[in-house]
Amino acid sequence: MSGADGFEAYDDQDEPGHGDGGDGGGSDRDGDGTSGPGGPGNTGRAPRIPLPRASVEDTGRPLPALDEPDPPAPLVLEHRVLKSLLGAWALAACSAEETAAVEDHLGTCGACAEEALRLRGAVGLLQRPESLDLDPGLRTRVLDRCLDRRPPRIPIPGWAAPYDAETARLDALLQDFGDAEWHAP
Fold it and tell me: Are the CB atoms for 78 and 65 separated by under 8 Å?
């Protein structure tokens, strides 16, 4: 859809009877379903199948510029509202606008800044230093014990065991990816 009539990618001007007013016998389609190879007006060639549409990126033309979103207006909240948000701010549960408003307020209000320090210290006491993730070998050990008790219906051939192990490692690696790693260039 890049020309004046929007169909340059589909028009082949070098074919006889297509768009040049030549003696190609008109359109290959009558609307009654009898045209084409074997129907009236058969020219002995296969029906013309249009090419797929070209992507905007493939045309060589510059892409339209994206509009930058306007920066959000800073929240203007009362002191009592900001003080009530300190607990959520310490737990990192505020929205971006609320976080910015609380942090701006902490620079100007000493009482709230002291309260924020106490709350952040309390949050640090709530978090466990050890990881809550399960032992990576636990799944393998459980499955091995299950297979020792009852073998699989279709046993895995010996030559497929290395592929099975590598597939399991790849699966574990891909499940461990976070959103940031999936979208990294």
Answer: no
Measured CA to CA in angstroms, residue 185 lies from 97, 148, 172, 180, 181 at distances of 28, 44, 21, 10, 9
**130-136 long-range Cβ contacts below 8 angstroms, 24+ apart:** 136/172
Q: What string of DSSP letters covers 128-174?
A: -SS--SPPTTHHHHHHHHHHHHS--SSPPPGGGHHHHHHHHHHHHHH
Q: What is the 3-state secondary structure (H, E, C) of 23-61?
A: CCCCCCCCCCCCCCCCCCCCCCCCCCCCCCCCCHHHHCC
Q: Rounded to an integer, what distance in angstroms lies between the CA atom of residue 91 and that of residue 83? A: 14
Q: What is the pTM of this model?
A: 0.35
The pLDDT tens digits of the residues spanning 160-170 come to 888 888 998 89
Q: What is the CA radius of gyration of the chain?
A: 34
pLDDT tens for each residue of 7-66: 554 444 444 544 444 444 444 444 444 544 555 555 667 777 777 776 766 777 777 777
